Recover the amino acids of this structure.
């Protein structure tokens, strides 16, 4: 009896504790937002001694090692002034989850790397110092940053975070298979129709009619749908692609999307395209193993693809119609400086490190070691970078594609607080149409409808 | 022995054919795991995989060397989880079962019912409040958050209570009259006397902890140093899918303890369960 | 040890009120003297188990109900009371699909996960050379955790390199889209689970068969319908406790599977392998979701299923199981 009473007392105590801590909402009362958002000047570091800052990131393998190298370099230059410690958080989703948890009451990092689709969410947490504040205070020259890259992370003309690791989608081809099929490997297909025409020649069947090599095969990755929309010069959601205010709905049901999915259905029905799910790892394996001759992937996969047993080539991300005049959106992640609970010295130290990473030499190192885009235009002119690009001609395609894309709201990309869910819903639509054979328009409509509630809930919660 | 003991030639041929077919189908993935780790990834990126020749230790070295998903700390975490849960289950279950069987305990039946009722609650049903709860207790970044909700087991109490009840009453009385205290009786007479049930609970609890997936997945989300081998396998696949050789080498490393347990420990497991639960 | 039949289950076994410390016959006065000290001891002995289970199994049910009636802000903290809204979301066709996938998945796993090991255990129980080796080999999949099994099987069915597809092509069969065709995806994910549980189930069933008299078994392994009939009418009832045990444990394993759908298909294509546990994971912890309210409501559904299963096990099946 006594035990039970003790247990229930403890339980009650814990329940209360939990309720209290969970009532601490995203925006606790009593926070001076002006103080959070304000960027301190260079004198903030005076007399602060050595300032320790923590950076949460999700860079694995070589990328992580390169980031560490850059951080070591920075620490050596700033001994006694600033010390950067990196905290690795598995992957982008986990990094953002960790940040969410920290917002509920534990220690926040000074810089956090967040993927592109977390942009609106990060703004809505009201816990960060907009990068623009530092740019303004320092009169920092941002013209060197590739405008298409900075464009994604700018909302209302204000740069919120510093782009860091940036990628773009490309069309990849198996050059050997192209040559064997009598196609010109230097002329990768540029439209859906051209892909179909090439795939007819590239698809190889064995004597019993089974397909040995498919002409085309790409993961049903939601990011690609966003890309097609941008290439078509269209916006993916309302409110100027979410750039003029919180978007209220995604625009999935468009004639272009219907045409795209119907095309994809025809490709699989005719045995010209391999059916793949949304896991890009499966798509990568299919391309690397020679099972498909044309695929779609990010520039980030270039390194792995060049290691395949055949010669991989690259082309622009394809258009739905030959007349499409837009261009692809950048992806990847950016760095956010945390303002909540941070004093001026820490904010300033975080900015100093960000500036260092953005410099052309750091970017050249970053670009040539990892294969990500250099965000700085000057970095492309460094000697290291020139040599590297000369060895990887496929990357020149990506650079041309980036620089040839006009920055519009469409190519800036759509922002949603719940963008990860929007992407997942797009994948559901693609899977429903291509894998389940549902009517393309209906599949898109269902997916779009499924988002009404999460988007509405989110916008209610942030009062947008 | 009667002649019945040996099946006819036809029956035995049929038996072997069936078992051989089943073995090929069911064991190919095991073969692929064990052999694939010794192959370069290029041999596995072909259809069919080239399982003969070209053996190398590179994939193992890469799996151990890669720093994205360190396997050794994950191994230690898994060991910590398995052993802690095992020991905790044994201690909490033995003590509780002892009180329920041999001690004059008030509210014995309701308490036992309450403990039994917990078996019906799938932990996935309460994983959300538990994750918030453990975090609010401030254990979010410690290894203990991996095991905290699993230190007691309703099934363990039930299994040991069942075994204790079958312990001959006369022995207990004799021990009591000899002036044997409860603790001594429990540890020197009762537990050794219920070895099959104890062994079963030991193996079962260890495997429960070792193979746990959902909970470590959400705990390690915010702190990858809390990866167990099971979540590390998933993380490894996310990072190294282009290198199936490395992936299979990593998986083989994670399998070693359970393979040993399955090969050498299955007798205890079965005997324990058949004694305590089946018959 | 007595041969007393005890309930063969990890789920809730039936309860007979136990007469506590009255097993003794002699020296009552001594026992009574001891009884004075027994109460504190009993409290100390029970405390760890009761606290552990109370805090982390029973108590969380209350916050689960609390969370299920709240909305949440963008970082997942519960906000205002939303009444039964999350429960209303359980009445949608989408959640009906989730329940249907859970049922289909569980059925496949339980039926195949018991029949396959049974079809192996019976021939393995014969006195033939090599049977022990075969049995040990067949138990190896038991060593795989959910994520390890899922990753290895992903290689087995990889659309680009699958060795299974290669064999099928040799014999002229077009391979299905194992993880991309929505009907096959659920079968594939369930099949991997069957593979995982078959090792343990084989062990338990073999142990059950080993306990039978040899003559009983011999007749069952005779060829032809006589053998089958004998197996169904004589052998099966005699090992029914073992069968019952594996049915119960397999049901629970299937119901609680997360790693297989999460690693292999991520619930897809288009949600067609989204089971209840996957859905809880997805709503609460995946894709930057933190919809703790809906996930908690779905958790309560899982709780009800758990309780119902326990009731079915001990209300209906229990009576039919043959104990010696």
């Amino acid at each position: 009896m006594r035990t039970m009473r003790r247990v229930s007392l403890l339980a009650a105590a814990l329940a209360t504790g939990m309720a209290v801590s969970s009532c601490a909402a995203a925006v606790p009362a009593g926070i001076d937002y002006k103080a959070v958002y304000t960027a301190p000047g260079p004198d903030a570091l005076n007399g602060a001694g050595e300032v320790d800052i923590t950076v949460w990131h999700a860079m694995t393998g070589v990328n992580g090692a390169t980031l560490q190298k850059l951080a070591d370099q920075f620490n050596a230059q700033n001994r006694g002034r600033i010390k950067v410690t990196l905290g690795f958080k598995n992957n982008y989703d986990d990094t953002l989850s960790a940040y969410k948890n920290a917002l509920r009451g534990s220690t926040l990092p000074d810089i956090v790397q967040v993927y592109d689709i977390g942009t609106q969410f990060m703004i809505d947490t009201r816990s960060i110092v907009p990068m623009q504040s530092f740019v303004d205070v320092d009169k920092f020259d941002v013209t060197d940053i590739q405008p298409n890259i900075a464009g994604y992370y700018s909302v209302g003309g204000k740069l919120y975070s510093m782009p860091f690791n940036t990628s773009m989608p490309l069309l990849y081809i198996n050059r050997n298979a192209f040559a064997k099929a009598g196609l010109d490997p230097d002329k990768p297909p540029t439209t859906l129709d051209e892909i179909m025409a090439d795939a007819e020649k590239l698809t190889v069947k064995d004597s019993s009619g089974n397909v040995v090599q498919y002409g085309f095969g790409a993961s049903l990755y939601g990011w690609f749908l966003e890309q097609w929309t941008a290439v078509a010069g269209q916006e993916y959601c309302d409110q100027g692609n979410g750039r003029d205010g919180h978007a209220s709905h995604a625009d999935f049901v468009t004639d272009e999307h219907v045409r795209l999915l119907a095309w994809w259905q025809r490709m699989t029905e005719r045995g010209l395209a391999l059916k793949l799910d949304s896991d890009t790892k499966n798509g990568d394996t299919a391309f690397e193993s020679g099972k498909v001759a044309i695929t779609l992937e990010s520039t980030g996969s270039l390194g792995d693809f060049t290691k395949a047993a055949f010669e991989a080539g690259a082309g622009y991300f394809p258009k739905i119609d030959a007349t499409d005049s837009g261009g692809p959106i950048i992806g990847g992640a950016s760095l956010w400086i945390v303002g909540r609970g941070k004093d001026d010295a820490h904010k300033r130290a975080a900015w100093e490190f960000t500036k260092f990473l953005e410099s052309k030499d750091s970017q050249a190192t970053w670009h040539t070691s990892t294969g990500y885009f250099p965000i700085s235009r000057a970095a492309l002119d460094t000697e290291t970078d020139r040599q590297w690009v000369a060895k990887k001609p496929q990357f020149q395609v990506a650079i041309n594609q980036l620089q040839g894309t006009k920055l519009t709201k469409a190519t800036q990309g759509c922002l949603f607080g719940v963008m990860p869910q929007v992407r997942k819903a797009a994948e559901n639509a693609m899977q429903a149409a291509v894998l389940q054979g549902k009517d393309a328009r209906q599949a898109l409509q269902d997916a779009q409808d499924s988002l009404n509630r999460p988007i509405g809930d989110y916008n209610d919660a942030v009062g947008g | 022995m009667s002649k019945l003991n040996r099946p006819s030639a036809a029956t035995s041929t049929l038996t072997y054919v069936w078992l051989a077919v089943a073995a090929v189908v069911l064991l190919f993935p095991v073969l692929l795991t064990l052999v694939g780790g010794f192959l370069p990834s290029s041999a596995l990126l072909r259809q069919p995989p080239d399982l003969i020749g070209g053996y190398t230790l590179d994939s193992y070295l890469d799996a151990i060397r890669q720093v994205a998903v360190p396997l050794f700390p994950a191994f230690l975490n898994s060991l910590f989880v398995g052993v802690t849960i095992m020991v905790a289950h044994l201690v909490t279950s033995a003590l509780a079962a002892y009180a329920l069987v041999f001690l004059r305990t008030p509210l014995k039946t309701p308490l036992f019912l309450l403990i039994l009722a917990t078996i019906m609650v799938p932990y996935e049903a309460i994983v959300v409040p538990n994750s918030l709860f453990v975090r609010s207790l401030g254990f979010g970044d410690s290894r203990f958050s991996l095991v905290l909700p699993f230190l007691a087991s309703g099934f363990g109490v039930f299994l040991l209570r069942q075994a204790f009840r079958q312990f001959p009453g006369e022995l207990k009385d004799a021990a009591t009259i000899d002036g044997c205290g409860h603790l001594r009786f429990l540890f020197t007479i009762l537990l050794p006397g219920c070895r099959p049930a104890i062994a079963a609970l030991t193996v079962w609890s260890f495997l429960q902890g070792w193979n746990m997936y959902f909970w470590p997945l959400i705990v390690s989300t915010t702190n990858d140093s809390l990866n167990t081998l099971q979540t590390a396998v998933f993380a490894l696949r996310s990072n190294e899918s282009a290198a199936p050789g490395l992936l299979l080498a990593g998986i083989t490393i994670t399998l070693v303890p359970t393979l040993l347990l399955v090969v050498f420990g299955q007798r205890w497991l079965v005997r324990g369960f058949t004694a305590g639960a089946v018959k | 040890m007595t041969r007393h039949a005890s309930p063969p289950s990890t789920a809730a076994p039936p309860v007979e009120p136990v007469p506590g410390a009255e097993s003794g016959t002699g020296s009552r006065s001594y026992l009574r003297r001891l009884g004075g000290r027994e109460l504190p001891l009993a409290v100390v002995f029970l405390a760890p188990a009761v606290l552990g289970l109370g805090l982390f199994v029973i108590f969380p049910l209350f916050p689960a109900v609390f969370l299920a009636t709240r909305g949440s802000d963008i970082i997942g903290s519960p906000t205002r009371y939303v009444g039964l809204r999350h429960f209303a979301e359980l009445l949608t066709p989408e959640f009906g699909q989730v329940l249907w996938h859970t049922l289909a998945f569980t059925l496949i796993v339980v039926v195949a996960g018991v029949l396959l090991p049974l079809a192996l255990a019976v021939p393995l129980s014969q006195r033939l050379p090599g049977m022990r080796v075969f049995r040990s080999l067949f138990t190896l999949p038991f060593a795989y955790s959910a994520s390890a099994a899922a990753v290895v099987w992903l290689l087995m069915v990889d659309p680009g390199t699958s060795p299974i597809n290669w064999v099928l092509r040799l014999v002229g069969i077009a391979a299905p889209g194992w993880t991309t065709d929505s009907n096959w995806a659920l079968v594939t994910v369930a099949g991997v689970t069957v593979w995982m549980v078959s090792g343990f189930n084989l062990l338990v069933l073999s142990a059950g068969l080993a306990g039978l008299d040899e003559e009983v078994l011999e007749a069952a392994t005779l060829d032809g319908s006589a053998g089958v009939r004998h197996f169904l009418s004589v052998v099966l009832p005699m090992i029914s406790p073992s069968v019952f045990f594996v049915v119960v444990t397999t049901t629970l394993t299937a119901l609680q599977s997360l790693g297989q759908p999460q690693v292999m298909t991520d619930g897809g294509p288009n949600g067609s392998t989204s089971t209840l546990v996957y859905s809880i994971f997805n709503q609460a912890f995946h894709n930057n979701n933190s919809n703790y309210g809906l996930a908690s409501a779905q958790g309560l559904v899982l709780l009800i299923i758990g309780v119902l299963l326990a009731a079915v096990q001990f209300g209906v099946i229990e009576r039919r199981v043959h104990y010696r």
